[in-house]
Amino acid sequence: MTKSLQLKTAELEKISHLDYFNIALSVDLVIFGYENKELKVLLIKSDLEEFSGMYSLLGDLVRPDEDLDSAPYRVLLSRTGMDDVFLEQVHTFGSIARHPSGRVITTAYYALIDIRHHQLQVDTNELHWHAVNDIKKLAFDHKLILNTCLEQLRSQIMEKPVAFNLMQDKFSLRELQEVYEAILDIKLDRRNFRKKIAVKDWLQDLNEMESNLSHRPGKLYGLKKQFKRKSSKELAI
Amino acid sequence: MTKSLQLKTAELEKISHLDYFNIALSVDLVIFGYENKELKVLLIKSDLEEFSGMYSLLGDLVRPDEDLDSAPYRVLLSRTGMDDVFLEQVHTFGSIARHPSGRVITTAYYALIDIRHHQLQVDTNELHWHAVNDIKKLAFDHKLILNTCLEQLRSQIMEKPVAFNLMQDKFSLRELQEVYEAILDIKLDRRNFRKKIAVKDWLQDLNEMESNLSHRPGKLYGLKKQFKRKSSKELAI
């Protein structure tokens, strides 16, 4: 026979679990950029003695009066001056001992930006772009977080038109292939790549050609308007 | 000129942010099942007075000595007796006022199970399967969490062989189409569906036919061995 359900108030529930309310929440941002045919990520020098000399992702604690999903936009704006970047929540990391300050859970977001269109506010933290392939070790579990976001990016670029956020508005198919190769860290077959991209119907022929190049100029393309995701503000709604 | 970086200890960092360490973390499980051509989800009666009479997802607070990713398996085992279910982390919900006990952040996981192979431990909580289409309102922000996991499931079923976790080991293409229709909540074109599934190369022809049916028997198929994801324990590694 089913016993009847005992109700309790939310307040009583909290009092009986006070030692559970001892966690801080942070956000960490994996901000990808693309430059000189390399996929890069934005890192700062850690300001914790425990990680002296090591680099970490951009991040901060979520404030008591702040929604989780607002925090990454605040961090991005305050540390880089950027407010027009698309951020996607990827994964939450919650191992018991991941942070030396105590129990700090972190939610990771990734962003893709066109490096040439953004001016970093370097300040004291040595905020710089690092080639993803050169990163061996990071503070905290940030290497795991970076790898998880990189996997997410790799799994999405053939499904959704996200890679274009790394590029300028006009590009040749050769340049597009180079971006895909940098993300996937493999060489792609030219003909096969062009066939796969054509099927997606993401691109618009701009009726222009590349100029001032040492190689044979290619046609220029842009992402079709309906696929453009410009501003974090539009997307946060 | 760049100022030099001031280091601080993790302990000092915590002391200067004590009011940030006031959060509890929970997990919520969206456990999908399939029965009578309907997509279902496992719900319990809420035991909080604030949500008296309302249903909620299965969930619990993460314990102080427990990794985030271990908690959903503990909840699943203790509430349903199941330990062989695939769980995937989907999204973390962190609005300031989402829980009446205080600041409780929740990480949502989804699971797909074959209803016929699992025996629920109903106990006091009125743990039951509910048709997803019949659910209008849930306690907390659980309707939003359900919708987010449903979107994730829908976006994954043509990319990965996940829907098969809802089904018995042997099935006809007609039964498979019914599962996809239940998840997507639309009617699919028979010929088109079969073509799309064939391209995936997920299925193995079992050289058997359906029997004891009122309609014309169809061929039976199984998921190829390399795509089977049986146990949460294997997958948690």
| Total number of strands of chain A | 8
The SSE string of chain A, one letter per element, is: HEEEHEEEHHHEEH
Mean pLDDT of chain A: 90
Low-pLDDT regions of chain A: 231-237
Structural account:
By secondary structure, chain A is an alpha+beta fold. In chain A, 25% of the residues lie in helices and 25% in strands. In chain A, the strands form two sheets. In chain A, strands 1, 2, 3, 4, 5 and 6 form a six-stranded mixed sheet that branches. In chain A, strands 7-8 form a two-stranded antiparallel sheet. In chain A, strand 1 and strand 2 form a beta hairpin. The longest helix of chain A is centred in the middle third of the chain and has 15 residues. The first copy, chain A, is elongated, with a radius of gyration of 22 Å. In chain A, 33% of the residues are buried. At the A-B interface, helix 1 and strand 4 of A face helix 1 and strand 4 of B.
Task: Offer a concise description of the structure.
The structure is a homodimer of 237-residue chains. Chain A is 25% helix and 25% strand.
Task: Please tag this protein with its features.
disordered C terminus; alpha+beta; six-stranded mixed beta sheet; two-stranded antiparallel sheet; 8 strands; 237 residues; homodimer
SSE layout and pairing:
The structure is a homodimer of 237-residue chains.
Chain A: H1 10-15, E1 24-35, E2 38-45, E3 55-61, H2 71-80, E4 87-93, E5 104-112, E6 128-131, H3 142-156, H4 173-184, H5 190-200, E7 203-209, E8 219-223, H6 232-236
